[in-house]
Amino acid sequence: MEFRKIQFTGRSSYIISLPKKWIVENNLKQGDVVPLLLNPNGSITIFPKKPKEISERKELTITREVSPDMAVRLVISAYIQGYDILEIHFKDELPQYKVKIRKVIQSLPGMEIILDQPTRIVAKSLLADEEIDLWEILERINSIVISMLEDLELVRQVEDKALIKDIYDLENELDRFYFLTIRAVSKILSNPSLVSESEIIKKDFDLMGTLFIVRNIERIGDHLVRIAENFDNKIDTRYIKEMFSEIIKQITTKDLKKIDKIMLELSKKAKQIDYRESPAMDSYRRILEYLENIGETIINMALS
Question: Of 4, 35, 190, 257, which has the fewest Cβ atoms less than 10 A away?
Fold first, then answer.
């Protein structure tokens, strides 16, 4: 990190010198005008007159040396890192790989396959980065989990394969929004102009906090699926729904006394659960622990 002294010039102007190396690299000269961005965290970002073009295309070459699952992970990784065009080449015709990759691309929010050849797939993001709102994503994620819990409550009353399938579908939707959240945070970190101060994003730490919250919610979704597969009537789905709703409210209200009360209640309840009774009871305990993690993150965001 470099430090530069603020100087006073004229009657009312403050100036700071810019590194010569940066000026040369960006072909700037005396008299050029450069744009400034005032960030929500109080910092200032200076953009060069002619910013270097950052490649938005990621090329992946898939061979039999990696498994189909690894190939899928590579595609997801390129997506969440913010690449807008994914060009996937196959060394040979690999139909099993292509089926899985095509399916995962179709599940990634905003991605569309624009070219599909025997040894090549090209996908492009149709998302407008400036229109992605992290708070809207959180609200959608919240509604998905509530729907999963409502389905679980019905599973308690009647065994219905359609309900369990709906829980699977909702969990897949939760995964989609989890990937979108990581992508959005990655984009914002590389281009702060994409975010404005909102209900949840006021400091840089709020970006990481939001990411951690969504990760914990995604894990809760995984365990709700596990409960659906191994349902145990001892599980109080209404209690999970109540505590989930209460802790999510605190993302914006940040009432530390209320959070303290919720977390003490969650900790006490989790200790009363015998997680060895069944896979469902183990997942019940883990869900309460993930809710505690969310509470801790909100506290950190409140103090940042």
Answer: 257
Q: What CATH class does 130-303 carry?
A: mainly alpha
pLDDT beyond 90 at 186: no
Q: Residue 278, exposed/middle/buried by CB under 10 A (0-12, 13-18, 19+)?
A: middle
Among the CATH numbers 3.40.250.10, 3.40.228.10, 3.30.1370.110, 3.40.50.720, which is that of 57-125?
A: 3.30.1370.110
Neighbour tally for 98: CB within 10 Å: 21
30-83, pLDDT tens digit by residue? Answer: 888 877 766 655 677 787 765 444 458 899 999 999 999 999 999 999 999 999
